[in-house]
Design a protein that fits this description.
129 residues, five-stranded antiparallel beta sheet, 10 strands, 2 domains, mainly beta
Length: 129
């Protein structure tokens, strides 16, 4: 469900501003301004779930929540920690948990050498950022 307190983009990567999520009398209650590639904002309507079409068909215009680690790639070199920066760990980015925590491959491995185990951490930054 689309909410006013989160950040979104279209499935094809365009920035979105959510103006309203409760327009009455329509299957498209979510009203947005989408920043087009030419720099113009375009008014669009979406379903409660952020779909551009009510049929459930996937569209490049669907809304996707922007998450903290969207620009991270599997095996990016990262530094992670939970609450104390004194306990920082260097590792390779393995993805995100369902609740949004970053994970690294266990034992310093990469996607190629891993045994499939990854470890979640509360904080994560790319090395060199």
């Amino acid at each position: 469900m689309i909410t006013m307190d989160k950040e979104y983009r279209t499935r094809d990567g365009e920035a979105v501003r959510v103006l309203c999520v409760d327009k009455l009398g329509t299957e498209y209650p979510v009203i947005t301004l989408v920043l087009s590639r030419n720099g113009e904002e375009v008014l669009e309507e979406h379903t409660y779930c952020g779909r551009f079409y009510t049929t459930g068909t996937e569209s490049p215009r669907d809304l996707i929540e922007v998450t903290k680690y969207d620009d991270f790639k599997i095996d990016d070199l990262v530094t992670v920690w939970d609450t104390n920066r004194a306990n920082m760990v260097l590792g390779y980015f393995a993805g995100r948990t369902p609740d949004g925590m970053a994970t690294i491959w266990s034992h310093g491995s990469t996607a190629i050498t891993t045994n499939g185990c990854s470890i979640p951490y509360k904080q994560c930054i790319k090395v060199g950022s």
